[in-house]
Design brief:
Layout (H helix, E strand, L loop, with lengths): L28 H16 L3 H21 L6 H20 L4 H28 L5 H28 L13 H12 L12 H27 L4 H9 L43
Length: 279
């Protein structure tokens, strides 16, 4: 008789490299606060120091997203090492003071934020129950999307020879973030407009992404949100699961012989025929 497999400990995943329950989610409140602080720092301080601090803050955002959205195996360590090395390189090229260096640093910030948004959305959608952490995660992904497009707008401005905004509007970190969130929310004030084809195409993609994000992900999470009290009520209304009390009991002793053998044939041997005469 085979022995029953030992019960798994709660709070540990079956996959190697993942710690935490399969239905649990990350704590996205700290991530949301860090994103708000990063945005306010760049919005109220347009100095070069604040722009360079953004590189380190965005790397910290990625590391925090990795902690709240665990990946199997050694992927978190590998991504963390690449993010650290890339952030150091982006900071080094931004200190050169050239347009190419500033553009490369903005591109790196955009790709870091893109990876962070993918990690957060992947984890939020994988949660079986929508709770307050899911709402925090969705809001964090929304802010990350706006900051990501702002970094790409700044990269276009630094790497091209023509101005990004029409009518000679000032191009800075504050105006890029302002234009990005106005486009993401489809407010359309009209005070800042992209002049080149690349900026216009990217603005259209951001507007579509903002509409899809709000109309599908955030609306679905808010409608399916359950407070702890509602979760307990729903759990109490579930029908009880069938309990198996053990393996099937087998009677000991010799089983009675069947009158018929396998394949329905008789178990008795046929009588021998008498030999023929002269044979």
């Amino acid at each position: 008789m085979t022995q029953a497999s030992p019960a798994r400990r709660p709070g540990r995943s079956t996959r190697r490299g993942q710690i935490g329950s399969s239905g649990g989610g990350g704590r996205y409140g700290a991530l949301l606060l860090l994103l708000i602080a990063t945005y306010l720092l760049s919005a109220f301080s347009g100095t070069e120091l604040a722009i360079q601090l953004q590189i380190g803050l965005f790397a910290a955002v990625l590391v925090l997203a990795l902690r709240t959205s665990p990946l199997p195996g050694r992927w978190p360590l590998l991504i963390g090492v690449i993010a650290l090395a890339g952030s150091v390189g982006a900071l080094a090229v931004s200190l050169t003071g050239t347009q190419a260096g500033a553009g490369a640093a903005e591109l790196w910030k955009g790709f870091v934020l893109l990876l962070t948004a993918v990690l957060v959305i992947r984890r939020v959608l994988a949660k079986p129950v929508v709770d307050i952490q899911s709402i925090y995660g969705a809001l964090s992904a929304y802010l990350i999307t706006g900051l990501m497009f702002a970094a790409f707008y700044a990269a276009i401005d630094h790497l091209t020879h023509s101005p990004f905004f029409a009518d000679n509007q000032p191009a800075s970190t504050q105006t890029f973030q302002y234009f990005s969130f106005v486009t993401l929310t489809t407010l359309g004030y009209g005070d800042f407009t992209a002049a080149g084809n690349g900026g216009r195409a990217l603005a259209v993609i951001e507007a579509l992404a903002g509409q899809v994000f709000l109309a599908t992900l955030v609306a679905r999470l808010v409608s399916a949100y359950r407070t702890p009290a509602r979760q307990a009520t729903a759990a109490s209304r579930r029908p009880p699961r069938s309990v198996r009390y053990g393996p099937r009991t087998i009677r000991r002793g010799k089983p009675q012989a069947d009158a018929r053998g396998p394949a329905g044939r008789s178990s008795e041997r046929p009588a021998r025929r008498p030999p023929r005469p002269g044979g």
